[in-house]
Amino acid sequence: MADSGGAGAGGGETLLFLTDEQLRKGIEAMFFAYRGFTADPDRILADYGYGRAHHRAIHFINRSPGTTVNNLLSLLGVTKQSLNRVLRTLVEDGLVDSRVGNRDKRERHLFLTAQGSELEQKLSDAQRARMRQAYRLAGPDAVVGFRRVLEAMMDPEMRSHFTTLKDQG
Amino acid sequence: MADSGGAGAGGGETLLFLTDEQLRKGIEAMFFAYRGFTADPDRILADYGYGRAHHRAIHFINRSPGTTVNNLLSLLGVTKQSLNRVLRTLVEDGLVDSRVGNRDKRERHLFLTAQGSELEQKLSDAQRARMRQAYRLAGPDAVVGFRRVLEAMMDPEMRSHFTTLKDQG
DNA sequence: GTTGGAATGTCAACAAGGCTGACATAAAGT
DNA sequence: ACTTTATGTCAGCCTTGTTGACATTCCAAC
Terminus of chain A with fewer CB atoms < 10 Å: N or C? Predict the structure, then answer.
């Protein structure tokens, strides 16, 4: 059914990249690449007895120190109960500092401790190394395209989170 | 530490795209984009009481009809026990047909039933629609770059799986 | 000032889907 | 025939997602 992108009827011959086959390859590329993307951090995390959920929390706390649980929630797109379990272990293990808010005592503001920063560095170094290698192999023009397609693939809400983080950066 | 990609020392000024900040943005882009990538199938799967694991199995069985459990295993990168649970429910529900091999009776060859193909279509249509939209917004050149970076990000073993599938396609 | 609703975060219990270990069956080598 | 190897299945554990119930804090109405 519906080979919607072909050069056959109507459109332009510039739409060859929208064939179902091309799209399928893109889908598989995402799948395999994401495996590579998470492989190195996963190995490090296993040494600590942590999982990807811990990595994500650590990443975004490092990115926005002092962020609240609620804010982290909307970034991660999980339930607060799920995030809470992860945060609790990180606080217990002394990687994250959770301070009650001054203005609003319902909120908890989250910071990495020195120990937390150390793990963040390890994870982030490994993941950046993979990314750097891929970027280097693909070249600067490819990187621009890569980022453009990824951004277009996000849900609008996630895209706005993404660009907000970008502006901070 | 280690702002390894800067234009500062040694290399060329064409390496600005390798700054730690750029790499971090790439990492976050992957994270947010992958969420979008899986969002539509996830909704459909939920109606059937299935999860992503079922989707992956269905996708690759459709891609290589008659493939064996062992072959699927190396594509998916999970344990056979894990895959088996998913396959069992798909066979029970009549979406997948599992036929004992002729040459080697230890092997099971996997096929989608009509019902399985129907679900595959739904999932794949939704995911391709998202991909098509992203490709269209980003443009053909961006798509080439996207694919190049993703391919460079894979583990070598996954990359060879990927290109093998490509050749079949 | 008290009270009721909304927001924030925590605790408990359950489900999906990873994992390892133990095992049955079939094929292949000795 | 007998051991070794490959393939697939069954059982049980762990992480991490989910919903439901609840405590605390804030704010607005009274």
Answer: N
